[in-house]
Amino acid sequence: MTITTLAAAASTTSSDHHSKMESVVYCIVLLCLTSGLWMEADAKAEEKDCSGSCPPGWTKLGSRCFIFKNQAMNWASAERDCLALGGNLASIQSTTEYNFIRKLVRTATGQDLNFWAGGHDAVMEGVWLWSDGSKFSFSRWGRGEPSNYRGKEHCMEVNYGANKHVNDVDCLDKQPFVCSSSLK
Q1: Quick count: other Cβ atoms within 10 Å of Cβ 136?
Q2: Residues in domain C-type lectin (predicted)?
Q3: pLDDT, tens digit, 9 for 90 and up, residues 19-37
Q4: How far is residue 176's CA from residue 71's CA, in Å, rounded to a whole number?
Q5: 168: which residues sit within 8 A by CB, 6+ positions away?
């Protein structure tokens, strides 16, 4: 360890250290959720009815099913809840899907609530991934987003700001969420 490193470590407050450790632990949890648990979701997806319909409570769009959950949870807990239902936090593959899930939330609540989607950059800052493993090619970010404000924003929320765009936000925030699952 160099003197510069020791000096920097000594000047770090306990609060800063706790905050940094919390962020590291949270990133590890997100990494685990988005890598190893895909197999669990795939196994549950194989158990689904192959008739082309969605389970009760889910809404079909194309070859996918969506469900809005109006319980405020942090991103990792919301992803876990979606996995338990046989899906993932919703990936957004098109403008049609983006508008559809926003309408799904508005219909259920009567308002344009902010909610979690499955996007995150917890593995590597600036490299956005979907928790379901699908290709990330999304372009509905709000102006100046993603910003990684204070180095703590690694998860995607929808309906941000006056224009209701997408934003990166602290994964520990609690919000309702939308899950999605592919028809098999």
Answers
A1: 17
A2: 61-180
A3: 444 554 354 444 444 444 4
A4: 5
A5: 121, 145, 146, 147, 148, 149, 153, 154, 155, 156, 157
What's the predicted TM-score (pTM) here?
Answer: 0.74
**42-54 residues labelled b (16+ CB within 10 A) or e (exposed):** eeebeebeeeeeb
Decide: helix, strand or coil at residue 114. Answer: coil
Quick: pLDDT tens for 122-137: 999 999 999 999 999 9
Structure-token pair, residue 56: 């009760």
Burial 140-167 (b: 16+ CB within 10 A, else e): bbbeebbeeeeebbbbbbbbbeeeebbb
Tokens of 41: 């979701």
